[in-house]
Specification:
With 190 residues, this protein is an alpha+beta fold. 54% of the residues lie in helices and 8% in strands. The protein has seven helices and four strands. The chain has a four-stranded antiparallel sheet with strand order 1-2-4-3. α6 runs antiparallel to α7. The radius of gyration is 21 Å and the shape is flat. About 10% of the residues have low confidence.
Length: 190
């Protein structure tokens, strides 16, 4: 049976997996927190071993990706994580984010275990790999459910089309809303 700390660690990890550039990734700032190291120390260790991290293992977020990610976190989880604030915002006296965070794919996170040698890093890496596997299983079961739904739709009459359409709509993720400009003006809602 999993301990309470393992459950909370697992939940934290699952909340920190994002979809960016069609890859499920974790950010360097979150990984550093999980490994209990400074973000710059994690990035330095990676840069010292950069040949182990090709672009499909790790990439740096663009300004647009970073801004989009911050807005997603605000809408889905409440206030912005202070490590993901704008580069210009002061976090504490004298501290601010100097560089955009790096995104690590599942393979990149696995490679981190060869760069970071602490017991904590090994334990956290095991939990992260388990979270990625659970996520893959959930996505596979969702795809299987969609296939079964299509087979049922072919089998039954038009009277159930409305029900199937409603279920299919529930299975598709919502499209991101366009932001309205801030301030007073003759803005039209679209």
């Amino acid at each position: 049976m999993a301990s309470k700390t393992a459950v909370t660690l697992t939940e934290r990890i699952e909340r920190q997996i994002f979809l960016i550039r069609r890859h499920k990734v974790m950010l360097s700032t979150h990984l550093a927190e999980l490994y209990e190291v400074e973000p710059r120390a994690l990035v330095q260790a990676v840069k010292r071993n950069i040949e182990r991290f090709p672009e499909d293992f790790m990439f740096q977020l663009s300004d647009d990706e970073f801004a989009n990610l911050k807005s997603q976190i605000v809408t889905s989880r409440g206030p912005v994580d202070p490590r993901l604030r704008s580069q210009n915002v002061i976090l504490k006296r004298g501290q601010h984010i100097k560089y955009l965070p790096y995104a690590f794919t599942e393979q990149g996170v696995a490679m981190l275990s060869s760069v970071l040698h602490s017991d904590r890093a090994i334990h956290v890496n095991i939990e992260i790999m388990r979270a990625f596997v659970r996520l893959r299983r959930m996505l596979a079961s969702n795809a299987e459910l969609a296939r079964k739904l299509a087979a049922l739709e072919k089998k039954y009459d038009a009277q159930f089309r409305v029900v199937f359409a409603a279920i299919r709509e529930l299975l598709t993720p919502p499209e991101p809303k366009k932001k309205r400009p801030i301030g007073f003006g003759p803005w039209e809602d679209k």
